[in-house]
Design goal:
Length: about 200
Amino acid sequence: MEERKQHWENIYGHKQPNEVSWTQEIPETSMKFIHSFNLPKTARIIDIGGGDSKLVDFLVEEGYKNVTVLDISEKALERAKTRLGNKADQVTWIASDILDFAPEGKYDLWHDRAAFHFLTTTAQVANYLNTAENAVVGHMVIGTFSKNGPLKCSGLPIKQYSEVKLQETLAKGFEKIHCIIEDHTTPFGTTQNFLFCSFSKRQL
């Protein structure tokens, strides 16, 4: 776990947003999915692997009052806090590897753009899903590299997903609502093919 943390601290310590592939000025797709749930502004939202993503900026700007950002990199979270300024106090920040995360409460929305696909072993995926199934009481949005996406990101291997494979992987705890495929244009002009899917928590 420490090796994973060190990798990301090194990335965020040495590279600016325009030097990493995942940077997105406007998280349009994520916001469309979030809006589709018609959540109240008091909804408990967590962004898994949020790093210094600007999704939190948009959520705060729209008046969501219970937003949490989790990332393995403390440097990434510090960047986001600095960018938000005084508004950072409106957000809960958690520095943790998702595989070590023990949620203290429940979430109405679990959002993950490009963290899940870094979990490449059966045990890692099972760990993640167990945490999500116990923590989520509403919806989930996951964005991963598709079968036409990269095989590596930030020098690390990833796990590609098709719509069917992602649905099967989450089937025990979540029911698929909607999926799309889209190209993400990186800051340096290359494209990465993503699969985005929304899910609802299965009721027991």
